[in-house]
Design a protein that fits this description.
Blueprint (H helix, E strand, L loop, with lengths): L1 E3 L2 H9 L4 E3 L12 E7 L8 H14 E12 L4 E2 L2 E2 L1 H4 L20 H4 L8 H4 L33 E10 L10 E5 L11 E7 L5 H7 L4 E9 L2 E8 L1
Parallel strand pairs: 1-2, 3-4
Antiparallel strand pairs: 4-11, 5-6, 7-8, 7-9, 10-11
C-alpha cells in the first residue's frame, strides 16, 4: 500500500491498479503496528524543521509491528564522499537526463535520477527572483527570503535550500492523468516554459539522520550507509 501527498501521483497508481491514497507523512491513517515494513524515499528532506523531520520518523515507526523494518533515504549534503562524486554531480550539461521530463510519473527511475537536474546558472536569475547584481547567481537568496537558491548539479553550501523547477501547464495527452509537467531548471524544455517554482529541501549532514533515529526509543538502528548522494538507514521496531 502506497501513500503520497500528491493526488496526481496517487491517481497514476490507481490507473496501474496499485493501492495508494493521499495523506500527510506526519499523520498516516493506518492502524499502529499493522505494517511489516515501511519505505520512505526522498520525503523527510522536504520537512523544514528538525522537530517535523523527527516526527515523520516517529510516525513511520508507529506503523510498524514489533520486529518490523523501515528503510529511509534522504538527500545528503555530502555529494562527494570518500573521494567519489555522486551521480548527481557527475551528470552535468549534455547528459541525456537533462532533456528528460521530470513529471509526476517518474517514480520508477533511480532516486539520483529524480533529483533536480540542471547545468544552468539558477533559473531564478532569469525570472528576477534574486538580486540581479549577483551575476554568478550561486546560492543567492530569493527576494524576501533568507533561503539560498541552489545551483543544480553543484555541491551544497547550505543545508536548507530552495531548488528551482519549471512548471508547464499543458493539455492532457492521451493516456496522461495529469495536466502539468515539471522540467528541471536549465533543460531545453524549461527554457521555453514558465513559471519557476522553488521547492524546499533540507539536505542531511553525515550522522544527522542516524542521530535522529537514535533519539527514538521505539526503534533500533540496524544499518546506515551512503548511496549515490543519499544518507540511508534501516530501522527495526522494538
Amino acid at each position: 500500500v502506497g501513500c503520497d501527498r500528491s493526488k496526481n501521483l496517487v491517481d497514476i497508481c490507481g490507473e496501474k491498479n496499485f493501492q495508494a491514497f493521499v495523506c500527510d507523512a506526519l499523520s498516516v491513517p493506518i492502524r499502529s503496528g499493522s505494517c511489516d515494513a515501511c519505505i520512505s524515499i526522498a520525503v523527510i528532506h522536504h520537512f523544514s524543521t528538525a522537530e517535523r523531520r523527527l516526527a515523520t520518523i516517529r510516525e513511520l515507526a508507529r506503523l510498524l509491528r514489533p520486529g518490523g523494518m523501515a528503510l529511509i533515504y534522504v538527500w545528503a549534503m555530502e555529494q562527494e564522499y570518500k573521494n567519489q562524486k555522486s551521480k548527481y554531480l557527475k551528470e552535468k550539461n549534455g547528459s541525456k537526463d537533462t532533456e528528460e521530463e521530470i513529471n509526476t510519473g517518474t517514480a520508477q527511475r533511480p532516486l539520483s535520477d529524480q533529483m533536480p537536474d540542471s547545468s544552468s546558472q539558477d533559473s531564478a536569475c532569469s525570472e528576477g527572483l534574486i538580486d540581479s547584481k549577483d551575476k554568478g547567481c550561486h546560492a543567492q537568496p530569493v527576494e524576501d527570503s533568507r533561503l539560498p537558491v541552489h545551483t543544480n548539479r553543484t555541491s551544497f553550501h547550505s543545508q536548507d535550500v530552495l531548488v528551482p523547477w519549471h512548471l508547464r501547464g499543458g493539455t492532457k495527452k492521451k493516456g496522461e492523468s495529469v495536466d502539468t509537467v515539471l522540467f528541471p531548471a536549465g533543460s531545453k524544455e524549461s527554457q521555453e516554459l514558465s513559471p519557476v517554482f522553488h521547492r524546499y529541501y533540507h539536505v542531511f549532514r553525515e550522522g544527522e539522520l542516524e542521530a535522529a533515529c537514535r533519539s527514538l526509543d521505539c526503534v533500533r538502528l540496524q544499518k546506515s550507509y551512503y548511496d549515490q548522494g543519499n544518507w540511508c538507514v534501516v530501522l527495526e521496531k522494538l
